[in-house]
Amino acid sequence: MNTENVDRLVLLGSKGGPAVRPGGPWPSSSLLEIGGRTIVVDCGLGVTRALTDAGVSLKALDLIFVTHLHSDHVLELGPLIHTAWTAGLATPVTVFGPPGTGHYWQCFCQAMEFDIEIRIIDEGRPDIRDLITVEEFGEGSILDERGLTVTSLRVDHPPVTDCFALRFEQGGKSVVFSADTAFFPPLAEFAKAADILVHEAMLEEGVERLVARTGNGARLREHLLASHSFADEAGRIASDAGVKRLVLNHLIPADDPAIGEDDWIDAVRKTWFGDLTIARDGLVVGLGGQKAASGEETA
Ligand SMILES: [Zn+2]
Ligand SMILES: [Zn+2]
């Protein structure tokens, strides 16, 4: 439960891809606190630390959504839940993910069986396997509960077919996450008039440099171009959808010293002229005009 009752979005991890480097940003995860619900979207490496840095009690974990099973979105799902359990989690948590999420969770519990069994016996903890429900979803309505609705749209992220954009609506506010996707025009309808669209983005010149310094450059370039969106394409979706604010997230590249916030802004301003946020780890975006905590982006 969000006790401060201030609706906010926190970009916990803002880089695209699973690799981390000294001083660099961390893989994909976000926190959405809306209408008293504590919602985690994607669980890339670092999500647990980032949640506690954002002041969230792990015992308050409520809903977790995974957009797809690439490791930069799911690697720390099990460790997050397990750590919350050792921190005293005693209320049910529902994990919504694409087909295969249940298999991940079962295998994680198997891998940690020794520790889980011993803590139940030795420390009298509830069985973690009874606290967690995994709901595998496809396209359409995912959740309609206490004024919160969540819907999904299959996006274009080859070779992954089960990758879903998510739309959260509560009390007249709406936040849409694009997930990982190539330029996908149906997203504009899905994100129609949302308060915030969090869209993935790459920067063309940065991709060329990334490819040049990577061993299997040609294959990497092929994957990136087929499966992800350039910043101006994210801007095009935001404009067509008529959203109130665009957040560029899952940045590729995210840790090239030659690329700064101005480069991202220049690229997206070709197609988007509204409120704009370039994600960085820990950045807070207020929802619905309320004043959020320090670090809020207003540009
Ligand atoms: Zn990704
Ligand atoms: Zn992906």
Low-confidence region ranges: 289-299
Distance N terminus to C terminus? 29 Å
Return the average pLDDT rounded to an integer. Answer: 93
- What is the structural class? alpha/beta
Hetero groups: zinc ion
Count the beta strands.
Answer: 14
Describe what this molecule looks like in 3D:
With 299 residues, the protein is α/β, with parallel strands linked by helices. Helices cover 30% and strands 27% of the residues. The protein has 11 helices and 14 strands. It has helices at residues 47-53, 71-74, 77-86, 101-111, 113-123, 128-131, 186-190, 204-212, 217-227, 231-241, 261-268, and strands at 8-13, 29-34, 37-43, 63-65, 93-97, 132-136, 140-145, 148-154, 164-170, 173-177, 196-202, 245-252, 275-278, 283-286. A 7-stranded mixed β-sheet has the order 6-5-4-3-2-1-14. A 7-stranded mixed β-sheet has the order 7-8-9-10-11-12-13. A hairpin with a 2-residue loop joins strand 7 and strand 8. Helix 8 packs antiparallel against helix 9 (217-227). The site of one zinc ion has 5 residues, from loops.
Descriptive terms for the model:
single chain, 299 residues, alpha/beta, seven-stranded mixed β-sheet, globular, disordered C terminus, binds zinc ion
Topology summary:
Layout: E1 8-13, E2 29-34, E3 37-43, H1 47-53, E4 63-65, H2 71-74, H3 77-86, E5 93-97, H4 101-111, H5 113-123, H6 128-131, E6 132-136, E7 140-145, E8 148-154, E9 164-170, E10 173-177, H7 186-190, E11 196-202, H8 204-212, H9 217-227, H10 231-241, E12 245-252, H11 261-268, E13 275-278, E14 283-286
Parallel strand pairs: 3-4, 4-5, 5-6, 10-11, 11-12, 12-13
Antiparallel strand pairs: 1-2, 1-14, 2-3, 7-8, 8-9, 9-10
Bound molecules: zinc ion (2 copies).
One zinc ion is lined by residues 68, 70, 157, 160, 180.
